[in-house]
Amino acid sequence: MNAAKIHLSEDELLLLQNAEWVLTKNKIIQKVYDLFGALAASMQEKLKNKNLPEAVLTSTPKISRGENYKGLPYVMLDYPRVFGKENVFAIRSFFWWGNYFSITLHLKGDYKRMFIDVIQRNIQELSTNHFFLAASDDEWKHEIDDQSHISLPNADANQLQQIFTTKDFLKLSAKIGFAEWNNAGERFEELLDALLKGISCRPD
User: Fold this and answer.
1) Dist. CA 94–CA 65, nearest whole Å
2) Fewer CB within 10 Å: N-end or C-end of the chain?
3) Is residue 1 over pLDDT 60?
4) What Å distances lie between residue 201 and 30, 85, 132, 204, CA to CA?
C-alpha cells in the first residue's frame, strides 16, 4: 500500500473530525430544494397561459442533485423539460456549490428553429437582463465563463448571427450570485419572466 496516497494533511484531518460542516452543508442543500420546489410551482402557474408546444406544457418539474460537477455539489431544477436526441426545450435552474445560481433556456433542433426568429427580435430584452449566449460546442457545459459564453450586452451583431446560424442548439443563461441568496427566489422569477418574454409573440 502506498501510504502517501492516503496521508491526510493537517487541514484535512481537522475537517474530517468536524461533523458540523457536513450537517450545515446538508441544511443548505435542503434549502436549495425548498427554493427550487417553490420556483417549480410558480413556473407551472406562469406557463399555463403561454403559447408553447403541447409537449412543453405537459412536462413536469424534476429536481435532482449530485456531488461532482467539476468536483463540487450541485442541485438542478429542470422545468419545462423536453429532452430528445434531436429536439430539446428546457429551462434549467442550477445551484453550483462555491460558484453561483444560474438559469438557462436550452433549445435544440425543431424548438430552436421554432423560436430563433422571435429570440433575435427580443434580444435587447435579454441583453438588458444580462443574459449570456453559449458559444461553445458542448451543449451540456453548465459553467458560464468568458471562454464558453458571450455576454449579450457586450456582443456584436456578427458574433450573435454566427452563433445563431452555425449551431444546432441555443442556450441563454444568467447568473445569480450567492450574495443575493436572500433574494434568489425573486431574481429567478425576474429572469424567468425575461426568458418567457424573449420567446413570446411566436407566430402560429
Assistant:
1) 10
2) C
3) no
4) 37, 27, 22, 9
C-alpha cell at 94: 442550477
Q: What are phi and psi of 57, to 5 degrees?
A: -70, -30
DSSP 61: -
Cβ atoms < 10 Å from Cβ of 16: 9
Q: How confident is the model over 97-155, as pLDDT tens digits?
A: 999 999 999 999 999 999 999 999 999 889 999 999 999 989 998 899 988 999 999 88
Residue-range domain boundaries for the chain: 3-198
On the CB side of 103, CA atoms within 13 Å amount to 25
The dotted CATH code for 3-198 is 3.30.930
Question: How many Å apart are CA 67 and CA 71, to the nearest integer?
Answer: 7
Give the pLDDT confidence of 53-107 residue by residue, as tens digits: 999 999 999 999 999 999 999 999 999 999 999 999 999 999 999 999 999 999 9
**Nine-digit cell at 64?**
435532482
